[in-house]
Amino acid sequence: MMADAKAKTPAKPAASATPVKKMGKPRNYDLGNGVYRFSRTRMFHKKALWKFLDKKTPKTVKPKKPLTIEKKINGEKNGGTRIVRLLKRRANYPTVDPVTVHHAKKAFREHTRYTRPSLVPGTVLILLAGRHKGKRVVLLKVLKSGLLLVTGPFLINACPMRRVSQNYVIATSTRLDMKNVQIPEKLDDAYFKRKREKRAKKEEGDIFTKKAEEYKASDERKADQKVVDKMVIGAIKAHPDKKMLFTYLSAMFGLRSSQYPHRMNF
């Protein structure tokens, strides 16, 4: 037998008892590029907001709950009434104050350090603060305190080894291969800590006179700088674009007009 040629029409769903309300379009809507159909002044009159200006609603005063209640007391010599508190006081009080345990806070040296994933040893950084701001330097390693150990090298842009916070550097996409560069273990936070001599007792004369202290690098610091510079320059020479890297590290970073750092790829 042949099948019926008429297509079967699907059954209509039963009409719901509660009709669904459609959300209408608001009177004032965005026409594009932040331009609205009506201005604020026009909407002020359309909504009749002038009716509600300086309209003060009366303050509703809530009755206070009574703390005491007056009770009648039998007996001729008891006064007849007595005021009783609704909330009774505690029957017993502790004789000694409870000891509050204050948990010991971690010292700053024990805090966990977080370093940005872009700050890998060998990355070329741009300094944003300090006396060497604007210079491009090479990241040697991340110290235990969370500070970055960087160097110019000194022979290229006169930036010696120094500690820098990661908040004041921009990490670029340029990186050096540091597998042959072995940073001495003594280059830690204690190595770069400034040594201050004890103040001598004031001699006779003006008590407010101050001697200007000038920092001079020690012979040990100069020798270590030469050793590290030699290894870093060797890593630069091993790079395929060594000529461009030498000029790149020696040039200062700066922004001209209509140059926006948040739109740049460093």
Could you give a quick summary of the protein structure above?
By secondary structure, the chain is α+β, with helices and mostly antiparallel strands. Helix content is 16%, strand content 15%.
Please describe what this structure looks like:
- The protein is an alpha+beta fold and about 270 residues long.
- A five-stranded antiparallel β-sheet has the order 8-7-6-5-9. Strands 1-2 form a two-stranded antiparallel ribbon. The chain has a two-stranded antiparallel sheet with strand order 3-4.
- The chain has a domain of about 110 residues: SH3 type barrels (Roll).
- Helices cover about 15% and strands about 15% of the residues.
- Component of the large ribosomal subunit. The ribosome is a large ribonucleoprotein complex responsible for the synthesis of proteins in the cell.
- This is Large ribosomal subunit protein eL6.
Q: Which sequence of strands runs across the widest sheet?
A: 8-7-6-5-9
| Cα end-to-end separation | 77 Å
> What is the global morphology?
extended
- The chain-level mean pLDDT equals 85
Which stretches are low in confidence, meaning pLDDT under 50 for 5 or more residues running? none
**Major sheet:** 5 strands, antiparallel
Strand content: 15-25%
Number of strands: 9
Total helix count? 5
Oligomer: single chain
| Known CATH architecture of the domain at 123-193 and 217-255 | Roll
- The name of the CATH topology of the domain at 123-193 and 217-255 is SH3 type barrels
How many whole angstroms does the radius of gyration measure? 39 Å
Helix-strand topology string: EEHEEEEEHEEHHH
Level of helix content?
Answer: 10-25%
CATH top level of the domain at 123-193 and 217-255 is Mainly Beta
Assign the structural class, choosing from mainly alpha, mainly beta, alpha/beta, alpha+beta, or little secondary structure. alpha+beta
